[in-house]
Amino acid sequence: MLTLVIGNKQLSSWSLRAWILLRHLGIQFREVALSLDTPQFLPQVRQYSPAGRVPVLIDGEVHVWDSLAIIEYANELSGGRAWPTDRAQRAHARAIAAEMHSGFVALRTHWPMQAASRNLSVMLPPAGDADVSRVDAIWEECRERHASQGPWLFGEYSAADAMYAPVVLRFNSYGARLGEYARHVLADPILNEWLEGAATEIAQEISHRDHRVHRE
Q1: Own/partner pairs for 89-95, CB < 8 Å, 24+ apart?
Q2: Is 59 helix (H, G, I), strand (E, B) or coil?
Q3: Distance between CA 75 and CA 93 in Å, rounded?
Q4: Which domain, by its residues, includes 147?
């Protein structure tokens, strides 16, 4: 069975991208969760990846790191089901996925993923507002083109939806406008499994903190 090494579900947007695509594709995997921002994280993750980052997909002797590389590996394992079957749609999906991978720096910097949190109030700089507008434009264009084929960006679920899932959570946490597509993503049962995990992490952290306070 494959192994997917991930970070905290509350914090790790890149882990979510790999995790949710594998789940939607029906690819079975064992989950190894590492706690980010701890002294133990770097020595632990370097057992799996020379890059020292999550996620990492392990298939026997093969170790694949970086979300886009994992997506392409999952695409091969699933017989090409991670991307649209139409060549033009597939090129479009890959383009917006790559744009997410390398862009939207202001949005990601000022609105870090806090998956299960709500009503966070953080003002974006102009560059962040521009990022939000661009994301909305991407979603609206895809839905206008492919609404008749299904509810996801290209009709059926694809890696493009996995790449933008953490952005939907950011919009939900920080109070951005949620259109029809974002509301559909938030209703996804698989995404909600991730959110349940994130909520459990928060509860455990509160419990540990309270326990330390009582001990002191």
Answers
A1: 89/146, 89/154, 92/142, 92/154, 93/153, 93/154, 93/158, 93/159, 93/160
A2: strand
A3: 13
A4: 87-192
- Using alpha carbons, select from 59, 15, 20, 45 the residue that is nearest to residue 191: 20
Tokens of 202: 């928060």
Residue 206 lies in a domain: no
| Integer Cα distance of 109 and 132 in angstroms | 13
Would you say 198 and 116 are in contact if contact means Cβ atoms under 8 Å apart?
yes
Amino acid 115 reads A
Q: CB within 8 A of 46, min separation 6: which ones?
A: 52
CA neighbours within 13 Å on the CB side: how many for 145?
Answer: 13
> Helix, strand or coil for residue 16?
helix
Residue with tokens 């590389």: 69
Tally of domains in the chain: 2
Per residue in 184-208, pLDDT (tens digit) is 999 999 999 999 999 999 998 876 6
In CATH, what number is assigned to the domain containing residue 71? 3.40.30.10
Alpha carbon distance 129, 198 (integer Å)? 27
Query: What is this structure's pTM?
Result: 0.94
Q: Would 28 be classed as within a structural domain?
A: yes
Q: What single-letter amino acid sits at 27?
A: I
In terms of domains, do 76 and 32 share one?
yes
> Which residues face 152 on adjacent strands?
155
Q: How many residues does the chain have?
A: 216
Reported as a single tens digit per residue, the pLDDT across 86-114 is 999 999 999 999 999 999 999 999 999 99
